[in-house]
Specification:
The structure is a homodimer. In chain A, about 30% of the residues lie in helices and about 20% in strands. In chain A, strands 1, 2, 3, 4, 5, 6, 14, 15 and 16 form a nine-stranded mixed sheet that branches. In chain A, strands 7, 9, 10, 12 and 13 form a five-stranded antiparallel sheet that branches. The two termini of chain A are about 35 Å apart. Chain A has about 425 residues and is an alpha+beta fold. Chain A has ten helices and 16 strands. Chain A has two domains: about 290 residues, Zn peptidases (Aminopeptidase, 3-Layer(aba) Sandwich); about 120 residues, Alpha-Beta Plaits (2-Layer Sandwich). In chain A, strand 1 and strand 2 form a beta hairpin. In chain A, helix 1 crosses helix 10 and helix 3 crosses helix 10. The first copy, chain A, is globular and about 80 Å long. The interface between A and B is large, with 66 and 66 residues.
């Protein structure tokens, strides 16, 4: 396999898919929008051209199957999502679809047979942009589909159920998408890092050890509004400066975390009904805390909330926080992590082991089966969820080579299904 | 004079005026709105009933004159504004109109003659709610009228010039409202404190020494947006936590000010396009700094901006600030301050001398003539610019008694105009 050449093919495929967008500027592809349907159609064509047998499931996921021809062979699922955030990047999600399609074409052309069936799944929805239905595409495969999302409406008042029917999909068929884990080897996903770690280290690839769990709180500080000119400093109960001290406490605690890295973000921060000449009476901010292990994350959260309460008490303001999300960390399968790291090392590359701070379809799939993830260096300072997201063809090619090496090593240890009735 | 009785009369008059509002809930009276015109009409009636000769000037100010009957007598102007902020208080501004009307009625009834003409002016606009035209009512009297505001439009697209014509006013007559300072004794204003200082001290009245000058900056912090899960803490350039550190630097600097008190407020603070799972890439906040003297205020501002620049440099983020307002402090006339303090002391009350953190019509009038201000205790924690603003009848009565004492003391030192042609 010519590594750089397949890398260029992968980059070109992402660029091609990136031409479809709901917005004329930037890249926005929401579930079942015209751009989304155009991308799905192109993916079907690309899969078919690569020798895969293509189907579209009840939810709109696009599946391409490369059967190995042996009865009793299990299936390795690999893939990622093709929807985007608003004004997103061209590689986020799509890399994990077009890379295995390129490899499937390579296998088809060279006649190499893996000892398992390969199934490339382009998940129709992971970002949750249109219906706040994160992991929509992968959830039914592992029995985690929440049917209530079908009744949600988008910003224009269109129910998901109706949008699906309009696209020729079958909402009532989603429950039947659950896979029998016995028939599966597991799930593997290639994804752009979406951060600066590999870029700063000067390394092309990273082997994911765990997908960080996230916990989020929505916080509210209640102070006393007042005239900015007439209330002396010692008599103030300023909700804004109290909240400022709290978000700095969050930052300080996360910076000081030892052992497992913890990241903490106050992504929203706003003085409610703020005016230049009024002492803030109310301030709201959010806490997002993540770590590759739940323990360090939860200890950090407890410390931060305790610090917030102490700051509030000292300043004579009220503090309320509400848990809005709590997703446990999902460790990758250790034997697969080792095998993937060995495949990277075999290319002469360092095999950095690192957590994934972002959630991925692998997080959902990993709840029911063995799972591994490969990260690829993100250019341009590591910026993602942005049109500035970039990746080099050389890195994409190395990721393809490492993936093929990992699949071959999986093949050496594969156990077929016992004989008997099967699908 | 029965102090408590006149206090009750003053409170009742403020309650009565407070029934007119542009909003059914709260108290909002914008320049020339239906509620504003209703208040103006009631003020004309009240002035006439108190024995004052009433006129309405080209701008909509309501003037009530109590002539002393001596040729060559100078005029003491006293008053305040009757417009409000959005959802404002019943005493802010109006107290300084209804109190002298009540005193004028008392003088008319008792036959007491002051040795100067008294002119009560109800200024039509000071808050700038509808046209951002702060001090509109008082500015033409001292030659500070900015005619360009006539061309401004309100939120509904109505030009001020047209709103004035619709109300029967004469925009082109405003320039002629300038008063000859030679004919004036000066300006005196009674105002609710709008802060908690007198309340906390347990004192009814305060003698204003200076009206604080305000300086405002609009600040912008430019960091690097990023995925909240994927960028390690040491690699972040978070605009939100940088701005949080800056507003705490503002608070710390003002708390530490020695000698002249300085108050600093970050009334607006917002992560631009903030999202829970995105590291803030941009944050905006405002700085409002005030002190009774310009020097301490300007030194505090310089220190705070320097601290912001140092924080920005250390964190690797950009910092920009833009001066949006710079009004110098206006000292009250020292001899008048002493006379007013003596009038308070004569009532058996402590005469606390204090700066005014808020701007008032007295600030504008004081640019052209002697000026003094009396503050009256604000109840309910000192909250103002709010429907929760309160004042006791006892305090209002003490304010009336102190005012009458001050006027009498002014009368003892009054000099008439030289003989000659006059208006």
């Amino acid at each position: 396999m010519e590594t750089l050449s397949i890398g260029q093919e992968i980059i070109a495929a992402c660029e091609q898919l990136g031409r479809h967008s709901d917005d004329p500027d930037g890249l926005t592809v929401a579930y079942l929008s015209p751009a989304h349907r155009a991308v799905a159609a192109e993916l079907q064509e690309a899969m078919a051209a690569a020798g895969l047998t293509v189907t579209v499931d009840a939810l709109g996921n696009v599946l391409g199957r490369l059967a190995c021809g042996r009865t009793g062979a299990r299936t390795l699922i690999t893939g990622s999502h093709f929807d985007t955030v608003r004004n997103g990047g061209r590689f986020d999600g799509r890399l994990g679809i077009v890379l295995p399609i390129a490899l499937a074409r390579h296998l088809t052309e060279t006649g190499e047979r893996l000892p398992f069936d390969l199934e490339v799944i382009a998940f129709a929805e992971e970002e949750g942009l249109r219906y706040a239905s994160t992991f929509l595409g992968s959830s039914p495969l592992v029995g985690q589909f929440d049917a209530s999302v079908l009744e949600r409406s988008d910003a224009s008042g269109v129910r998901m159920r109706d949008a699906m029917k309009d696209a020729g999909l079958d909402p009532d068929g989603i429950a039947g998408l659950r896979r029998d884990p016995e028939r599966l080897l597991g799930y593997y996903e290639v994804h752009i890092e979406q951060g600066p770690v590999l870029l700063q280290a000067g390394e092309a690839l990273g082997v994911v050890t765990s997908i960080a769990g996230g916990v989020r709180h929505s916080c509210r500080v209640i102070g006393t509004a007042g005239h900015a000119g007439t209330v002396p400093m010692p008599l103030r109960h300023d909700a804004g400066t109290a909240a400022a001290e709290m978000v700095l406490a969050l930052e300080t605690r996360c910076r000081a975390a030892e052992g497992v890295a913890v990241v903490g973000t106050a992504g929203r921060f706003e003085v409610v009904r703020g005016a230049t000449n009024v002492i803030p009476g109310e301030c709201r901010f959010t806490i997002d805390l993540r770590a590759a292990e739940n323990g360090p994350r939860d200890r950090s959260l407890a410390d931060v909330l305790q610090a917030c309460r102490e700051i509030a008490a000292r300043r004579g303001v009220g503090f309320e926080s509400e848990l809005t999300m709590n997703v446990p960390a999902t460790p990758c399968t250790p034997a697969w992590v080792d095998a993937l790291a060995a495949a990277v090392t075999a290319l002469g590359l360092p095999a950095r082991r690192m957590p994934s701070g972002a959630g991925h379809d692998a997080m959902m799939m990993g709840r029911a089966m063995p799972m591994a993830m490969l990260f690829v260096r993100c250019g341009n300072g590591g910026v993602s969820h942005s049109p500035q997201e970039t990746m080099s063809a050389a890195d994409a090619g190395q990721a393809a080579a490492a993936t093929l090496g990992f699949w071959r090593s999986l093949g050496r240890s594969v156990r077929d299904l016992p004989a008997g009735p099967r699908e």
